[in-house]
UniProtKB/TrEMBL annotation:
Function: Removes the formyl group from the N-terminal Met of newly synthesized proteins. Requires at least a dipeptide for an efficient rate of reaction. N-terminal L-methionine is a prerequisite for activity but the enzyme has broad specificity at other positions.
Cofactor or coenzyme needed: Fe(2+)
Known catalytic reactions: N-terminal N-formyl-L-methionyl-[peptide] + H2O = N-terminal L-methionyl-[peptide] + formate
Domain of life: Bacteria
Top-rank EC class of the record's enzyme: hydrolase
The protein's name: Peptide deformylase
Assigned keywords, A-Z: Hydrolase, Iron, Metal-binding, Protein biosynthesis
Gene3D superfamilies: Peptide deformylase
EC number: 3.5.1.88
Sample GO molecular function, one term: peptide deformylase activity
Amino acid sequence: MAPPSDRAPLAERVEELLAAGGPLPIVAAGLPVLRQGTEPYDGQLGPALLGRFVEALRDTMHAAPGVGLAAPQVGVPLRIAVIEDPAPVPEEVALARGRVPQPFRVLVNPSYEPVGTARAAFFEGCLSVPGWQAVVARHAEVRLRCQDEQGRAVDEVFTGWPARIVQHETDHLDGLLYLDRAELRSLSTNEAVAARWGQPTPRAAAEALGFELP
């Protein structure tokens, strides 16, 4: 049986989280909230509480640090995520991965669909699976539909690394982890990736570890 705080209305649960102050605790793989999907946001928090929750998600993402964070990753099963990427990588890496800076964005009730058939595979990690990375083949371009925190409609095409971030965070809201889409032969510790597989593309890792790239 879940503890009372897990059965409380979402607004109460968020207030309880925010009351502790500071970055929110990030839920690690193995807890059901990461696998059960999310409720569409339809005003459960109210404008003021939503604003506070979004700011807490942003602070937590920065502190981790990461380039995206979904509400289930802090134990809240609402269809809300935040993304932001200053893209602090060498030019060679940025060009190979299509990584360009992304401003802070709030994704409310997001969904995506592929644009075209091209796929790109790169090492990817997750704040809820600390210490590990694996190669994930994802759509190279996607169309995102959602609302922002003000309820304004968003309909935008993302390519390259921003498309990867959108897919990763939206997947969280559907109960999916990046490992569900990963080439498991590529699974590596952060230390192994830094020491061996830091090239702009994972081609060397594919050859050495025995998996195929798309």
